[in-house]
Each structure stands twice: as C-alpha cells, then as structure tokens.
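Subject: for your reference before the review

Hello V.,

The reviewers asked for a structural picture of the protein, and I figured it would be easier to keep everything in one thread rather than splitting it across files. Below is the amino acid sequence we used in the manuscript, unchanged from the supplementary table.
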Amino acid sequence: MKRAAAIEHMSGELPYTIDAKGRMSFPQRFRDVIGDRFILTRGADRRLVAYSEETWNTLLEKISQMRPGKEKEILKQIYIKGAIPVETDKLGRILVPQALREYAGLLKDVYVVGAIDTVEIWDKATYEAFTQSIDPQELYDAMAYLS
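And here is what came back from the structure prediction:
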C-alpha cells in the first residue's frame, strides 16, 4: 500500500549494511514513497532497483506493448525475470534474495540510493567506482538537456 508521501521524488545516497542472511534496513523516507511492499529486480551496472507496485505495473505494460525485438528481450531477461516482491518487516528491514545479492555483489556495505521514482541498492565499492567513473564533461552535457 502506497502511503501519502511528504516528498514526491526520491533522492539521496544512504550507507547501510546487509547481513549474511540478506537482511537490511530500508530507509523510511523511501518507504514513504514506494510503500512497504515493492518490487526488487536487477538493474544495469550490477545494481538492484526497487519499484513501487504502481510504477512496476506501468513498466510491465510498456514492455508488453513493445514490438518483438532485442530491446524487449533484454528487458524481459534483466528486469522481469529477476523481479521479486519484497515487503518490510516490523523493524523496517527487507530480505534481499540470494540470487539478487549475488548479481549485485552485496556482501556487507551497501548504498541505498533514491533515483527519482525508484530506489537503487548498490554494493558500496561498485557504487563508488561507478560514480567516480563519470566524466565531468558528460555530467555537464547531461545537465545541458535541462536548459
């Protein structure tokens, strides 16, 4: 169930830890937007992506309406086949399934990152390497699209 949110979009990067059983706290500020039950799936660059059920259903509809082809097959292989519903427990923790932990290399230290309408979960080292690999000129070029 989606709660009334104090913020409409999600942003920020929060360090967390994941235990050996795959349990980790999931930030309340993000749960306020996507709910206590959401879809967790594989994303690009060895990250996991959490979608609200509403956003996930919209994405599924868009993918189902795509013409058959390579792009549709890639989306089905990465996003859809790896998707699992997740629900927070009384302590605000989620259980990240082992297959998803292995895909993203989640062992202990992670970042939970707000990405407008989704939440990403990254292995700390992978996230730091990814953000450091962004060329400043590419960032400036991307920001030029906002003008």
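For the response letter, the relevant points are probably these. Residues 53-64 form the longest helix (12 residues). Residues 44 and 78 are 8 Å apart (CA to CA).

Happy to draft the paragraph if you're swamped.

O.
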